[in-house]
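Data deposition worksheet. Section B asks for the primary sequence of the deposited chain exactly as it was used as input, without tags or linkers unless they were present during the calculation. Section C holds the resulting structure in token form. Section D is free text for depositor observations; keep each observation to a single sentence. Incomplete worksheets are returned to the depositor.
Section A, Depositor: J.P.
Section B:
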Amino acid sequence: MAAKTPQYCDVSVYDTIPKVVAYNAKNWPTEVAMREKEFGIWIEYSWQDYYDHVRSLALGLKALGMERGDCVGLLGDNRPDWVWGEIAAHAMGGLSMGIYQDSIGDEVTYLVNYAEVKFIIAEDEEQVDKLLELIDDMPSIRNIVYCDPRGMRKYDDARLIDMATVRERGRALDAEQPGLYDDEVAKGSGDDVSILLTTSGTTARPKLAMMQSGHFMAHSVAYLEKDTKYPGDNYVSSLPLPWVIEQKYVVVQAPVCRVVVNFVEEAETMMADLREVGPHAILLAPRSWEAIAADVRSRMMDASALKRRMFDWGMKMGMAALDQGRRSKLADFLLFRALRDRLGFTFLTSAATGGAAMGPDTFKFFQAMGVPLRQLYGQTELGGAYTIHEWTDIDFDTVGKPFDNSEVRIENPDENGVGEIVARTGGMFLGYFRNEEATKEDVRDGWMYTGDAGYFDAKGHLVVIDRIKDIATTSTGTNFSPMFIENKLKFSPFIAEAVILGHDKPYLAAIICIRYEILGKWAEQRGIAFTNYTNLSGLPEVYKMIRAEVEKVNDSLPEAHRIQKFLLLYKELDADDGELTRTRKVRRGVINEKYADIIDAIYSDRGAVHVDTTITFQDGTKSRIVTDLVVEDLGGAGESPRQAAE
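Section C:
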């Protein structure tokens, strides 16, 4: 079989995404471009289908009154209609702005009003309901285009229009003015701002980074030169499309190198759908990789004694081989090959993680398994990722080296070479939309000041420590990175989230959220009764289990960085409650303010803290929580009531 050859569209000639899509439709009209799973069946779309959908939708928006410079919002799960709608907006000289599908009303209203969105493409009834509740506070919206007509007959609002009707209007306009679409696309330039990307907003409202399509595509090619993908390779889209890296993979890279994008049926079916596809490339957030690793280890709890011994032996062999810079062929043959197949990773040639730091333990776990996982690093403002490991030079404690079109330096390094990471790339944003003051604050002399602390090691790899503002110091003068310790904790299959405390305090402590599904299974196997998350997290047996996991992490840390107390929170941290960003980063300021009483209790002599609060679920229902949270002491700071009782 002949070796594959990468084929990248010349983005200096076809300098906008609509131009690349038209080029692909002309040259490879029947080649599969996308698949979408619906009602258990995979539906395929060729490049000709892709082009036809974009063309009719773009002209339909034009027929609705869209003008060059107008902003089109997109709200919903990852679907082909989402991508076609975005590129249709670009074709007519407009801007696209993705909104995270689980955004609450206040977030949606802020973004729509700030960008003055005129047309918004909503996936289904759920998203339309959300928009109609807010519509009076969003005066710029002219039309809401909904993709799924199910449940929409009951609505009577002149601003609502279904996607099929918009396309019909587009085809009618195309028949009247057959040269209009091509003329509008030809007017587009790679220097035009086409995408507004929301920043993570860890401390405040998200800003909107203005991306120029030509520069964004050129930066994607630089990425592809470090992480090659081939025509016909399968990619499974699972991360939210508003996120910069998923934009890069799905909206930009896929047309440029003709990767087939596969959209899963539901988030809950992602792993099953992934196994059916058998992708060549996958991008997952660290939280997803952590969840998969936790699920693998959880399944081994259900396995026979022989299988558990084989798994432990295989991991030991795999880790030992990694330390020698190789892979264990025997462990791969006896264990890992079947495990990769079980996960759907058999054909993987590109696996990446980004958006937040991943703990070295999780990284090593997948590398030992034979998954070609590599760490990315970057910011929305710099076109997403701009560093990656070389295939032959992977280091679990670093994020690799910069792309060929990117420059990175360390500003004001200390005696250890640690300082602020400052970078510029070929895909750098033009600035923040309607926020010149913030642009001047973050960009100086063409360099982006990232706010991250890091250094270059002896091999030229970039090491990212933490956000500068998050690097903490105890009252005794010990500096520590909360994120580093949190990532170690989350390698446990029983810990879903952790927040390390200790800034201006005498010692480190932790607020921990259990991984409910796995701990629930663990409890059921042992005949331990529980009713819900709050009840399970408060059980003595669960505290004992988590204590053992924390002590394992402590054994790997310097004494000054060890956790002396922890508490199991009564609920999971939630983006809807402002505790996490939409890309699952902890908002530490919110945590410190919201759980101030709990934090005070941890650092007092009290062995427990009483909680009487109300939590709101995603469907709007509320539940009152009344419980006592035990503060577990691991040594040196007193004895917990539970320990005393024992």
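Section D:
Confidence is low (pLDDT under 50) at residues 637-646.
The radius of gyration is 25 Å.
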